[in-house]
Amino acid sequence: MSMHDTQNERDNRRIPINKVGIKHLVYPIMVLDRENKTQPTVADISLYVDLPHHYKGTHMSRFVEVVNEHRGLVSLRSIEAILGSIVERFDSLTAHLEIRFPYFVEKSAPVSGARSLMNYNCAFLASLDRRARRRAAMDLIVEVAVPVATLCPCSKDISSAGAHNQRSQVIIRTRSAALVWIEELIGLAEDSASSGLYALLKRADEKHVTEHAYQHPRFAEDVARMVAQRLCADKRVIWFQVESENSESIHNHNAYAMIEGAGPAAQRRRKRP
Amino acid sequence: MSMHDTQNERDNRRIPINKVGIKHLVYPIMVLDRENKTQPTVADISLYVDLPHHYKGTHMSRFVEVVNEHRGLVSLRSIEAILGSIVERFDSLTAHLEIRFPYFVEKSAPVSGARSLMNYNCAFLASLDRRARRRAAMDLIVEVAVPVATLCPCSKDISSAGAHNQRSQVIIRTRSAALVWIEELIGLAEDSASSGLYALLKRADEKHVTEHAYQHPRFAEDVARMVAQRLCADKRVIWFQVESENSESIHNHNAYAMIEGAGPAAQRRRKRP
Amino acid sequence: MSMHDTQNERDNRRIPINKVGIKHLVYPIMVLDRENKTQPTVADISLYVDLPHHYKGTHMSRFVEVVNEHRGLVSLRSIEAILGSIVERFDSLTAHLEIRFPYFVEKSAPVSGARSLMNYNCAFLASLDRRARRRAAMDLIVEVAVPVATLCPCSKDISSAGAHNQRSQVIIRTRSAALVWIEELIGLAEDSASSGLYALLKRADEKHVTEHAYQHPRFAEDVARMVAQRLCADKRVIWFQVESENSESIHNHNAYAMIEGAGPAAQRRRKRP
Amino acid sequence: MSMHDTQNERDNRRIPINKVGIKHLVYPIMVLDRENKTQPTVADISLYVDLPHHYKGTHMSRFVEVVNEHRGLVSLRSIEAILGSIVERFDSLTAHLEIRFPYFVEKSAPVSGARSLMNYNCAFLASLDRRARRRAAMDLIVEVAVPVATLCPCSKDISSAGAHNQRSQVIIRTRSAALVWIEELIGLAEDSASSGLYALLKRADEKHVTEHAYQHPRFAEDVARMVAQRLCADKRVIWFQVESENSESIHNHNAYAMIEGAGPAAQRRRKRP
Q1: Closest CA to B225 of B246, B243, B239
Q2: How many CB atoms lie within 10 A of CB C47?
Q3: What's the structural domain count of chain C?
Q4: What is the ipTM for the molecules in this complex?
Q5: Is C7 part of any domain?
Q6: Which of C118, C116, C79 has the alpha carbon at shortest distance from C98?
Q7: Phi, psi (5° rounding) for residue B228?
């Protein structure tokens, strides 16, 4: 049976489409894990290509076929393979892949050493552009959202006792010239906050975390700057963006700071001929 | 033109439907305001009836017509009128109405007196049952979600300085024999927490709020109990439920407490013949 | 070092708490899978106990310890073990566990047979009550949310061509006297709708799904009734609730129907002495 | 009493902050309405400034003061005034304002003429940069999210009867050299889809909408292109982005298309010396 292929019809509006594809395909995946080699998780996947002006539509089912074929391990290598398959199968100039997933890290409570898992929402945002001349044609942004605690320096300074503190979220996005582990970015965010969070804290741990936070007050601005400072000094980093957002315990709105910048690898890249 | 009325067809499956209707109709409304008489806001409205087993379907457009006719002021009186119109127009035994909306209260900062608006998510959950014999056949639950700050008593007790605190949410639901203002339930929740929240706090206010919270540590359990205690003593209250949920600043999960109970008006009601 | 145990203090307000515990602990779990024995997924877990009036607070960290100890396979057996551990460790009368997780089923497209995974949001809602006399003291509700397509019978009837259709969600909750697989409830919802959904459909499949939906028009009311009819006839079912909600393609609000009822196993249970 | 001003302390990390401010302040506002002059609604407001490297922190309460002072009508003029107040009060180079709100338009059903309100999520995204030399230093993006129906051309072509269709969302963002009404962008999106949505449709309207959608099949790609085509021809338009996303009724994931481009006013602007 030969069915009419509506998508392959000619389009005469002369308007190319920047991105066309599928959003929010929920799929189980395996990701690389620094401690345990791999960990299973559940991903929200979006995939796009550009569409030249003369095609009426794209074949959305092919995106799912590609995800299905590469299902299993999601790594830098497989992301590049997925994007490669896509530009080939769609005969497109560009391909874009967004994979969002919770990632688990086993942490020890600071005093008792009690072990538990913390979840961090991570993403790989990857693009391939056939027109790019360099070998490393894939552009990859790694994104990690780290829940932390922040204690307000101003509130501490002006109050006779206590200081307002709250759950905050630090989002770090990086492009890098060499592998930066998710665990490294998590550590960076947690070190820059008043305290990291834990799923399991015994009484002695809670005392430690409370006192540590009180001794390390941080504005949203401080957290963003401390993360930025270390990314600026990391030779692997090409580009970064850090967002810090506090669910203020004294307000019903949030405090926010964002810094975007270039890392040392960007400078090296520019210096090369 | 006479079109076939599919919904009016006979259904032979002999299965009545408990609730059938529309969900999430977004509509502008006016609500009663203790200070300013009325305030405009935006509501998310759901409306249901029961459907006897012999009808195939309901006429969903009629729900929107009823909302449209009563658009304008949403008050206890208009809610009863809406439910009355619905049971009549649908020839149903029961009708249910859920109206969710943000409600704004002007607050003065505790020291500077600086004025600003705080938003509270509120709801009216109303039902009418024709089979009920009593005159007050409408059942109405008023729901108010109040963001507050809670400071952990345990963290304060065991730590040399500071105490973890966070934004929390207190949800109060009541059935009452006489009008209870939204503003009263908000006050009840804020008084029971370590501190209320404000959109605008100057430096002196922030000092006050911080110190007040440190002097009034509250577990989620405490907040729920303090609200329950006062509702148990309020002669207007027939039934209540209070939920208290802390977005813990030391964990990535929440602490939660819930109490459900009867108020004095329930006892009076039972005593009557 | 002996730290003061604030939670163990005596509380004199004489108000017991219905539920106290933790909400939204995100944890990786393994669940039973009819085809592949087990599948890894990511859960959102809440755990509660009741708190007698004389205790000031509960020890929230113990909930996480219990989850951590039982981490791994989540099955009917392990859920009962978790609840058993909790009532013992907290010395409570009741314990409640809510586990929500996406669950994946491999499906074949109806014509091409192309295989892909579909995700369904599922939950186990379990309670244990020490005061219950019967041996099967655990109450368990299995909840499955099934995305489906519904095509409007009225729109089909009155229109010269076409009929509005849309993505809908069917939520089934059951208590049962014997194991009902998640896959069975998914099948029940998909059979009752105009069509099930697929991650991957080739052209011939899309034709089949479109025509099948056109030949099987369903109101939200129909879907709820067809599911209810089959649950009413399933000897294992004690209780059920089915919700059907259409993201109407002609409105910006949803159409909704809900039926709650008893299954054959409830009747058998009542007949027993 | 003179309290220490922590935010005004000198910061030696030499890292300027791109954006610092408040997010998600919920406030009642009035917006301009083409038919009724103004309409009340509820906004989610975010406000940021840049922070030079030598300041430790910003004074978050000032943002709320500015919102409070300008509370009332939100128009192009008042947005510019808010941004002007902010750069002055914070002594910053840039200021950013995001206001998101539901906006209501009264629509008549296509056959019966029955009137009802439809809600559209809109936003003003405005920035002021003191370093910009031109008089029109404020950059303003108007964003409108329009829920529509789309009917799949491929499904219609290959099927003997019917065609899958669904609720979709069209998001249009524009920068313009002269006022473009929200109502115009809504009309543009609705005209480009298979059909617009209505809160209230009687039987004859439902027939009309169903048949109209069947006669106007549209891929996500088509919708994006048709909107783009008209914005490309609108002399007021400087820049636009259009996103079209279908909640596919045959899949549990969405189909998506996005076009970004320049309008005629951009060309005029470039031609000027």
Answers
A1: B243
A2: 27
A3: 1
A4: 0.93
A5: no
A6: C79
A7: -60, -40
Torsion over CA of C182, C185, C189 and C190, rounded to 10 degrees? 60
Spell out where chain B has E strands: 17-33, 37-51, 73-74, 94-108, 115-129, 138-151, 165-176, 195-196, 237-246, 254-262
The tokens describing B243, both together, are 């939920």
Q: Which residue of B has its CA nearest to C44?
A: B253
Cβ-based interface (< 8 Å): residues of A facing C? 1, 3, 5, 25-28, 39-42, 61, 64-65, 68, 71, 102, 104, 114-117, 119, 199-204, 207
**Alpha carbons C149 and C209: distance in angstroms, whole number:** 9
Q: Quick one: tokens of B126?
A: 């109303």
Contact A250 B195 (CB under 8 A): yes
Distances (CA, A) of A104 to C47, C64, D161: 20, 15, 48
Q: How far is C125 from chain D (nearest CA, A)?
A: 25
Q: What is the pLDDT of residue B258?
A: 98
DSSP of B103-139: EEEEEE-TTT--EEEEEEEEEEEEEEETT--SS--EE
Contact across the interface for A64 and C199, Cβ inside 8 Å: yes
Pairwise CA distance, residues D6 & A151, whole Å: 13
Name the more confident of B118 and C4.
Answer: B118
For residue B28, give the nearest of B99, B85, B97 by alpha carbon. B99
DSSP string over D54-79: TBS---HHHHHHHHHHT-SEE-HHHH
CATH number of the domain at C187, please: 3.10.270.10
Tell me which residue of C226, C206, C221 sits closest to C257, measured CA to CA. Answer: C221
* Chain centre distance of CA C26: 17
Q: For helices A220-232 and A182-192, what crossing angle results, to 10°? A: 140
How far is the alpha carbon of A73 from chain C, nearest alpha carbon, in Å?
A: 14
D208-219 burial, b for 16+ CB within 10 Å, e for fewer? bbbbbbbebbbb
Model confidence pLDDT, tens digit, residues A237-271: 999 999 999 999 999 999 999 999 999 999 766 55
Beta carbons of B149 and A250 less than 8 Å apart: yes
- B vs C, Cβ pairs < 8 A, gives 141
Q: Which residue range is the domain that position B86 belongs to?
A: 14-271
* D19 contacts on A by Cβ (under 8 Å): 256-258
- Please give the structure tokens belonging to residue C53: 């009036």
- Residues 6+ away with beta carbon under 8 Å from D49: D19, D20, D21, D58, D86, D87, D90, D92, D94, D95, D96
Residue C142 lies in a domain: yes
Among A9, A34, A61, A5, smallest CA distance to A184 is for A34
Measure in Å the smallest separation between the Cα of C58 and chain B Cα atoms.
8
Within a domain: B1 = no
CA–centroid distance for A65 within its chain: 25
SS3 at position C260: strand
Please provide the DSSP assignment of D29-51 as one string. Answer: EEEEETTTEEEEEEEEEEEEEEE
Q: Which pTM was predicted? A: 0.95
Handedness of CA B11, B12, B17, B23 (dihedral sign): negative
Out of A165, A197, A249, the one facing B252 most closely (by C-beta) is A197
Per-state percent for chain B, helix, strand, coil, to nearest 5: 30, 40, 30
Whether residue A3 lies inside any domain: the answer is no
Token digits of residue D157: 């072509």
**Which phi and psi angles does A75 have, rounded to 5°?**
-140, 175
DSSP-derived secondary structure for D118-155: EEEEEEEEEEEETT--SS--EEEEEEEEEEEEEE-HHH
pLDDT digits (tens, 9 = 90+) for B76-123: 889 999 999 999 999 999 999 999 999 999 999 999 999 999 999 999
